[in-house]
Every structure is written in C-alpha cells, then in structure tokens.
Write a structure and sequence with these properties.
- The chain has a five-stranded mixed β-sheet. Strands 5, 6, 9, 10 and 11 form a five-stranded antiparallel β-sheet that branches. It has a five-stranded mixed β-sheet with strand order 16-23-22-18-19, with no helix packed on it.
- It contains four helices and 23 strands.
- The longest helix has 8 residues.
- The chain folds into two domains: about 210 residues, Sulfite Oxidase, Chain A, domain 2; about 110 residues, Immunoglobulin-like (Sandwich).
- A hairpin with a 4-residue loop joins strand 1 and strand 2.
- It has about 350 residues and is mainly beta.
C-alpha cells in the first residue's frame, strides 16, 4: 500500500501491480476523515427513523434474514488523482490509487425503507457513521454523515452491505455494515452505519455542504455544485511512469471506468496525443459497475522519450478531456492519463 497519512489512515491501492478484478481487502484503498471508531457486531442495531410511517430498529439478524444481492462495484475516492491538478490544490495528495473494486453482498436499502414506509414529501435519506472527530474549519465534533436523494436511495443496487468478496466486511472498510452506492464517488458509501434518517428537506452537514462540492473558482463559491456521479476515467497500469524500455514489443495495459452507462471505447496515443489508436477492451468486464481492463501491443523501433496517453469514452458519450475541470478542493480529476517512458 502507498501511505498518504497515518492519522487518520489513508492509503492507496498499488493499482500498477493489480492483476485481478476483485481487489483483496488488504489492498483495498483506505480513506478516513477520523480515527477508526470503536464498535463490535454484538448488540449492533440500526435505527431507521425520521419521515417514515413506522420507525424501526433493525438488528444484524433482521438484516441477514432479508433477501440479499451481490454486486461488483468500483469505489473511487472523489480526490483520486488530486496531486495531478495544476495549479495545485490543498488536501490529501492522492496519486492514482484511491480506487478499488470487489464483490459486495447486502440488502437493498429499498427493502428497509419499504418496511418502515416513507412518508409523502420525503426528500432525502441521511446516513450517519460511527466515525467522528473535529474539523479544522468548524468548532465542534462531527460524525461523518451524508445523504442521498430519495431516487438514489431507492435504486435497487444501492445496498446495505455486510460482505466483501464473500467474507464479512473487514473492520477498516466499514464492518459490520456499510452503504454501497454504485456509480457515485465513494464518499457516498458511508462506513460503520450508526443510523438512517429520512428527511423532507436538504441535508446541510459539512461533509455535504462544505466538502464534496465542486468549487470551480478560487476565490468565490459561484457555480458550486455537489460531487455525485463518477466521471469517465482511465489509468495506465503498465508500463510504469519513468520506466526505461528497450526497443521491440511492449504491452500497454490499464483500466477504465465510468459513473454513467458503460465504457465503449479506450484509445491510446504513443506520440504525445498527435494520433490515437483504439485498443482492445475486455467487454466481459462491462457487467455491473466494474472497471474494464484494456490492453495494446506497442512496437517501438526508435530510441527516445515517449509520452503514452489513454482516453476512455462511455455510452453517454462522455470522453476524458485533455484538461480536467479545476476545482479548489480537487475532486473528480479525469483528464487523459499519461506516463513518460524512455526507450534505449
């Protein structure tokens, strides 16, 4: 793992060495705002209250007995690749490894909401985690709390998960229960769920109204909008940046993903973007909410320095831009990926 901070613990997945689509839990990236909470599965309950007909207290056994589903989901930190922004922005300086994926098993959130009965006029569902701490910009202690609009909360693949890769979710990734919200940046997938509340107004907690907001202007909040759906994106896994290669045949490979639809095309350039070639995409990966693997055989006869670039397109015709949308908190970086290699 690539450590970005120890307290709280923030570590990246070494994506350049990942050869599998199901990331082992010990290699799954870690993003925390606070220290890990203290709790156990014993006597674990989740209250579901607020604007519902029947406020309900769900035990772990209640949830385990409900019909479940398993979905393959990529989770990407909204700050993934933040260190690549120009000009630089403040915040955890993530490289390209704040992204992982695997198989999550759980109960559709919709099932719990239907059991409690959502009242007319309900607008959002709020999720509070057990993790808490102080912020540097506000004078009090906060739990990590966020909300989803009713439509996203009721999506059949928004789940309360209790297994990862067919094992109980590891403690550091949200044990015993965490929310999984496919297609949205992973700040929405609240860990260590403490309670769920249905509300009839917009939630204004700091991790929704201050953080995880695109601020496209350095000095003002004009045109601010919330961070939600993942951008179309790609990452080159091999060769490694600044590798020294010999002439001949080399495999360029990587991953691509999107928060809308599916990946339909990946292109690679080996001449600094002057020309682009469509590359082989593993269409079998285009199921559920996974990334797709792609590869391209590069035959190089001339020595020199080369910029290799990758660009993905999704089924909504969203294409990675050459320049990302700069925003002062550094979210959603999705510019064309690039590395430099030297051929000797």
């Amino acid at each position: 793992m690539i450590t970005r901070s120890l307290q709280p613990e923030n570590q990246e997945t070494p994506t350049q060495f990942i050869e599998t689509d199901l990331i082992p839990s010990h290699l799954f990236y870690r993003r925390n705002h606070f220290s890990y909470p203290t709790l156990s599965a014993a006597n674990y309950w989740i209250p579901l209250n607020g604007s519902v007909n029947t406020p309900t207290l769900f035990s772990m056994q209640d949830i385990l007995q409900l019909p479940s589903k398993t979905i393959n989901v990529v989770l990407e930190c909204a700050g993934n690749k933040r260190s690549l922004f120009e000009p630089k922005v403040f915040g955890e300086q993530w490289g390209k490894g704040a992204i992982s994926q695997g198989a999550w098993k759980g109960v559709p959130l919709r099932a719990l909401l239907e059991l409690a009965g959502i009242k007319d006029g309900a607008k959002e569902v709020v999720f509070e985690g057990y993790d808490f701490g102080k912020r540097t910009d506000l004078d009090r202690v906060y739990t990590f709390t966020r909300s989803l609009p009713i439509a996203k909360a009721l999506h059949p693949d928004t789940i309360i998960a209790y297994e990862y890769n067919h094992q109980p979710i590891p403690f550091k990734h949200g044990f015993p229960l965490r929310l999984i919200v496919p297609q949205w940046y992973a700040m929405a997938s609240v860990k260590w769920i403490k309670q769920i509340t249905v509300i009839n107004q917009s939630f204004k907690g700091p991790y929704q109204s201050i953080d995880y907001v695109y601020y496209p202007h350095k000095e003002t909040n004009e045109d601010a909008r919330p961070v939600t759906t993942m951008n179309v994106n790609s990452t080159i896994q091999k060769p490694l940046d600044r590798d020294i290669l010999d002439t001949g045949k080399h495999l360029i490979k990587g991953i691509a993903w999107t928060g809308k639809g599916t990946i339909t095309k990946v292109e690679v350039s080996t001449d600094n973007g002057q020309t682009w070639s469509n590359v082989k995409v593993n269409k079998g990966d285009n199921k559920g909410y996974k990334w797709v693997s792609w590869s391209h055989v590069w035959v190089i006869a001339e020595k020199g320095e080369y910029r290799i670039m990758s660009k993905a397109t999704d089924s909504f015709n969203r294409v990675q831009p050459l320049t990302p949308l700069w925003n002062r908190k550094g979210y959603g970086y999705n510019a064309v990926d690039e590395i430099m290699v030297k051929v000797e």
